[in-house]
Amino acid sequence: MQNNKFFRCIIFIIGLILFLDGFILILLKKWHLGTILPLLIGLVFIISALNHQRIQQFLAQHLKLKKFWQWGWRLFSIWIISLLVFFGYIYFKTQHNTPPKDIQTIIVLGSGITQGKASPTLAKRLDKAGEIAKQQPQSFIIVSGGLDFGETKTEAEIMAQYLQDRDQIQASKILQENKSTSTELNLKNSQAILKAHQLGLNAKIAIVTSDFHTLRAGAIAKKQGYDNFVTVGAETPITTRYNAWLREYFAYLSGWVLGEY
Question: Does a structural domain hold residue 100?
Fold first, then answer.
């Protein structure tokens, strides 16, 4: 009985954390699966913890539902394990992501702007790209992103200005791809810029994106014919890190199912 109460307390605390995490981010207008799912899972945990006895009494009278309930928790446990494996892969994959010293081009993938400024996630990507550019001044930087809804400047323009202001990178070293609205288009449209500078898909390229996004970005790049690249993951801001990782889990699975790579 004591162990049962302890387990219910743990479930309640986890549920409350998940619920508040999703709820607060949704209030900040971050509507996506990475925020909605924690909120819903947290709500289920809270209800289960507070109504454990009632649920068990109800299930005892409905054996078919009880089996369904038990199988649901088993499948949920398997999903949690797969999610933790995915998170672990992201974490360890990005611990040693220093690019080689002869990079010819750095492609920075867009991640949204807000009121004319780089989002926190995008700023982290640009900071990482700036670090590489300072160490390898021979390389060009392609900043990639089109015009976001409600904005007057393209994402590429904001990214270029950020690198000039923060890292003092010369404007002539920054090439803008300002039409794309997705990772696939970021990489596809960048090919024309590479070609214009006598660089092919076999050029030594560092694709800079967020840590959670390296796996999918690399798969898309490989399908498009990039064959001499490395993906470099920038740290995701802690306030949205695990929500972004959760969203990417489903994005990667859906991309695989839809044959995007």
Answer: no
**What does the pLDDT read at residue 205?**
96
**Cα radius of gyration (the chain):** 22
The model's pTM is 0.83
Q: Are residues 220 and 166 in the same domain?
A: yes
Candidates 196, 137, 200, 194; CA nearest to 169 is 137
Q: How does pLDDT run across 181-240, given as a tens digit for each residue?
A: 899 999 999 999 999 999 999 999 999 999 999 999 999 999 999 999 999 999 999 888
Domain range for 199: 105-257
CATH of the domain at 192: 3.40.50.620
SS3 226: coil
Q: Whose CA is closest to 216, among 205, 231, 204?
A: 231
Residue 207 β-bridge partners: 107, 231
